[in-house]
Please model this.
Amino acid sequence: MVESPLTRQSLLVRLKDPADGRAWGEFVAIYAPLIDRLARAKGFQDADAADLAQEVFRAVAKAIDGYDPDPSRGSFRGWLFRIARNLMINLLAARRVRPVATGDSNVRELLEQVPAPDGAETALFDLEYRRGLFQWAADEIRAEFRESTWRAFWLTAVEDREPKDAAGELGVSVGAVYIARSRVMSRLRAVIEKVEGQAAETS
Model:
């Protein structure tokens, strides 16, 4: 059986240890796809999106000791979003300013012209986070279920097929499809809740 993931707060504490490969592996698995999709939504190419993700994780590694989980200071996702957004701006600025320019005045002017993130941009980040978290959780629990159970869930919950159609394709009863979907959904919720921790903790 797949080991239960760390709670969000536990994960953040363990990220402070750069030698904790399991914590960093989990963090990258959840957030790398999010950063990649965010970058692509902003027009970054494959290589640039990969560079951005590396820069974000490097920045998190350097700054995680100073992260304050106090909800009044903002959420972890908000903190990560600001890091990713600032680094995207920096990468774009680096492509517009000649490398020989060392005064940084042009970069500063460019950054000052960038408006604060709007509601739509934040909503995009949250949406991509949810998508990435779902995919990660699905990958985590996939091996816990028989193929027919997983297919019943996937066909109806993800591909939005009618239960009777899924039942016909899988050669099972409609009731079996509902039961399979319910079992997988329940496990998914449990895994996601453990990753996110208490709703007010860091979100």
Summary: The chain has two domains: 1-144, 145-203. Residues 154 and 160 are 8 Å apart (CA to CA). Confidence is low (pLDDT under 50) at residues 1-7, 97-116, 198-203.
